[in-house]
Amino acid sequence: MAVNGGRGRGVRRPTLEEVAARAGVGRGTVSRVINGSPRVSDATRAAVEAAVAELGYVPNTAARALAANRTDAIALVVPEPETRFFAEPYFSDMLRGVGAELTDTDMQLVLIFAGGDRERRRLAQYLAAHRVDGVLLVSVHADDPLPDLVSQLEIPAVISGPRSAAETLTSVDSDNYGGARSAVEHLLERGRRRIAHITGRMDVYGAQRRVDGYRDALREAGVTVDELLIEPGDFTEEGGRRAMTRLLERAPDVDAVFAASDVTAAGARQVLREQGRRIPDDVALVGYDDSAIARHMDPPLTSVRQPIEEMGRAMIDLLLTEIADRRPPAPGGPERRHAVLPTELVIRTSS
């Protein structure tokens, strides 16, 4: 007679229902704990995990995903060229936060670039085939059709930064308005009055809110908003160079610059130095993001810290909740959630 050691074929595997009974909770609660949903109390999670350990329960991932029509995969969709993704610290910080929050789950992360029409068509086919359980959308512009496509397919989704004040998808953002205000108020406190702003792409809602914060800070200080001091940018270094060149041509008396990103500030700094402007003696400079670029710039860059990693973690928390609920929030309905994380001005030598 054969001897069956451990959990061989002769030993029945404990069921999800048995784990629920041992933990004193419902089957759905056990499922949420196993799937990494944040909508479970610490005490309940501990009880379920103890029951899993006592019974030796091992989730059958493939069977569970098949039965629940699940793929155990999440797509991080970036509608930008790959070159921009790898050049800007914002994206790597966001990816780090997303990855860290997924560590304790069974979910796999799929990174998808959709910067061109061909990539977007391929992505539409991929999502229509329901190859993933949920979607994270990062760096979405106001006219981007991807969020509407995701909504039509009824795929749970979370967007990084709403497209407008009327965003219909669950979103996570930082306080762009407050961050910009704090930057300009700091420059005003330093005695600067000809404060220029190099914007981000104006089809990005966060960039619009930074302009609003810039304007309001000046108005409340009794400083006239000079439209000649607002120059469109695109969050890139080259965009910062172009914008700073144009600003100095038409407003050579500028004494401070608030840039919509650290990368943009780096481009502005190059032009200021080329034209013999000392930082901060002649022109104070403030960036946005508080990335490694800010810390390593010469002089070190004052910057608005945007909690990008925390934003990535928050996006995953909200998305896992929607996936566990097995339905996306109704557009415009009461289930829609918008998380706004605080920013912080980090003062360094450049201002």
TrEMBL record:
One of its GO terms (molecular function) is transcription cis-regulatory region binding. The keyword Transcription applies. SMART domains: HTH_LACI. The keyword Membrane does not apply. Keywords: DNA-binding, Transcription, Transcription regulation. It comes from the Bacteria. Residues 14-68 form the HTH lacI-type domain. SUPFAM superfamilies: lambda repressor-like DNA-binding domains, Periplasmic binding protein-like I. This is LacI family transcriptional regulator. The lineage of its organism: Bacteria, Bacillati, Actinomycetota, Actinomycetes, Kitasatosporales.
